[in-house]
Amino acid sequence: MQMSVRTYSAIWLAVLAVGIILLVLFQSILLPFVAGMAVAYFLDPVADRLEKAGLSRTLATSIITAAFIIVVGLFLVFVAPLLQAQIVDFLAKLPEYFHSAKGWAEPLIESWTSKIEPEQSEKAEAVIEQFSQRAVQFVLSMLGDVWAGGMALVNFIALLVITPVVTFYLLRDWDSIVARINKWLPRSQAETFREQARIMDSTLSGFVRGTGMVCVILAVFYAATLSLAGLQFGLAIGLAAGFLSFVPYLGSLGGLIICVGLAFLQFDESWRIAVVAGIFVFGQLVEGMVLTPKLVGDRIRLHPVWVIFAVLGGGTLFGFAGMLLALPVAALIGVVIRFGLDQYLDSDIYHGGDEAEAPDQASPPPPS
Q1: What is the rounded CA–CA span in Å between residue 66 and residue 68?
Q2: Across all residues in the chain, what is the average pLDDT?
Q3: Cα(184)–Cα(191) distance, rounded to whole angstroms?
Q4: 233, 225, 220: which is closest to 259 by C-alpha?
Q5: pLDDT (tens digit per residue) in 250-305
Q6: Would the pLDDT of 196 be above 80?
Q7: Do residues 287 and 245 lie in contact, with contact meaning Cβ atoms separated by under 8 Å?
């Protein structure tokens, strides 16, 4: 039985619609599975190398999964308590920091309000006071929502327990899954699908592996240098700034603003504030000139605005799991769009059919 292009399109649109519906229905339990898929994809080349060295796929997967669990366990034992203590301490001192910032800004506000009428000055002070209270409430509410929505105890335990299991089975069966999907490809277009799959794999590896390594390196660098600089909460902010670096400018710019603001409140020496700012400037330079060109290259080919939109859109639709899925999906969509655009530019629709095919030589004159 032969199917038309319209039938193929209807089938793929139906599959896409079903996939979106399933994501919406099961978004509350997606995180461990998405994390497991990402870890399995990240570690698949390591398993392939161990398999080439003579180990069975199951043994190679067991060794990699055990090593991954040990690394995560060491992080939870040694780093997580320090991180938790800094987060709790930061939340406790947040109102104090807002009060200190208000006291630091009051002379500037007074010099500004002295130039306006008393009634307008009272209104401005009331607005500033109300804004300060709402800012504190907004930050605390946002942090509470993050904890309740993505880091609740049950979800956190599920992440720790389910993610290694998902990682193990996906990593063990990765090659067989790829081979099975390869058998499902339509024979007439199989090579085209394989070529686009190779491009997608290169794009995803550039993001998952390259950007992941960049984020880890920056997280360790920011956390270590900010802690050595004596900045309170430097460990927590440095790790957050590094891991958020997969969104262009979000990690470095957000970390710079927060850390410089804290440095103003904590330090009296201007050189220490300059050191904190210099850490982020140096980190951004190293990321742009060394890490990203070496580890990522130009394989992702995503505009920064599209990256930011994808992350915010994924987070809005599916929470933290949506943020993890956003950039890989955006990268794959980019591959499909570029393929479709190349097909269009090579088609008669773009060239205008027979009208665009001008003869190489001028036609001979009509006979006299």
Answers
A1: 5
A2: 78
A3: 12
A4: 233
A5: 778 888 888 888 888 888 888 999 999 999 999 988 988 888 777 776 656 667 77
A6: yes
A7: yes
- Domain segments of the chain as ranges: 27-184, 187-347
Tokens of 284: 């951004």
CA–CA gap between residue 15 and residue 167 (Å, rounded): 25
What integer pLDDT is reported at residue 368 of this predicted model? 47
Residues in the chain: 368
Name the strand (E) or helix (H) holding 134. helix 118-150
Residue appearing with tokens 């130039």: 115
C-alpha span between 231 and 273 (Å, rounded): 9
- The two structure tokens encoding residue 205: 């590896």
Q: Mind giving me the DSSP string for 82-106?
A: HHHHHHHHHHHHHHHHHHHHHHHHH
Q: What are the φ/ψ torsions at residue 217 (nearest 5 degrees)?
A: -60, -45
Decide: 60 and 47 in contact? Cβ < 8 Å.
Answer: yes
Using 50, 70 and 90 to split pLDDT, how confident is the model at 191? Answer: confident
pTM above 0.70, yes or no: no
CA distance 186 to 193: 9
* Nearest to 308, CA basis, from 335, 341, 330: 330
